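Example 3.2
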Amino acid sequence: MTTARTKKIFISDIHMGDARSFAKTYPYGWFRSNIRNLANFLTEQLSAPEVAEVVILGDLFDEWVIPTDEDPLNSFQAICNNPPNSPVIEALRQLAARGILTYVPGNHDMTLSTTELGGTQKFMEAAFPGIRYSSDPNLPNGVYRSGKLVAEHGNRYALFNASDTWTNPPSFLPMGYFLSRLVAYKVSTTGTDEDFHDILRKFVKQFKDRPNFVKNLFVAVAQDAGLNESDPINMNGIPGFPGTVGAIGSLYEQLIEDWQKHRQDIIWEIALLGDIGDLSWAAAYIYFSLFGSDQNIVIFGHTHQADMIKPPFLEAAPAVQNIHLDLPCRWIYANCGTWVDSAPHCTYVETQKDAAAGRHYVRLWTYPAKTLLQEGFVKL
């Protein structure tokens, strides 16, 4: 008897880098020691009889974590060709060939401009024949939908990391790209084990109430990395951007005003929460309440913080239950977490429809320990 394929697996934020990120005296890539874990995990999905689909919600490749004194990277091919990444690349190709791999882009693998949108999709489809590539035709974003479930990377609702169409068109690069490069420079020159998100949270807390919040934060991150405003940022091959720390900071100093002008879907304060680790508010505003959406499960990545909760501020919605309880949720927000080396666990989200019971389960797991952290369900 054939087992029904009722499960979908969601992962995000792998951050594979090119050879340079491994080769320096102080390697700065975020994903090295977990390569074998991810390759094993993906291979297991190939033989799992209940798995119908593996969905990667962005940041598979990393074109952002590059020190400011290095040439920027604008090709996924260098990452695919990096020998340490080969076990993951091969497992992905097998999943794609089986027809069960879907990819939604994130911010660290963001297409640079409108002219490259089609080329990125063609590359992914050529590198992984059979992959389903889900992207907006006009922006480097994507949304995965399946019934009342919706999933995406989540950076679209993050102040510093949403694709920026107004600061330097036709480029999409937001300020977060440059923040990532500043922190990568610090790691590559000092060997300090830094978590980008921790640095961002620290300086947001320090500067968020100041009049020139955005530029002050940018300069502070640079100074923390040992750079001054006059120091260069190598943008070779990416036209239209100024070449110093101070000039980049000035370029984005009106970010909040520009967000208020161009983004009517979500307020900048909620978008700031998305950058310091909490996208549940964005999920609630966009998909659960304000616009009459009928989605009842939302899955994001981006924050690197695995989580599964009831969306905030919504009434009459029981919280995600302890796995020993048997009450349905009205809505569930889940975050896939990450596979980067600094994470306490590699994590993933699993969904499963049980038609007989009328339930759509959502589960948050660790790997390789395979510990069930949280579980809840909504009614089908």
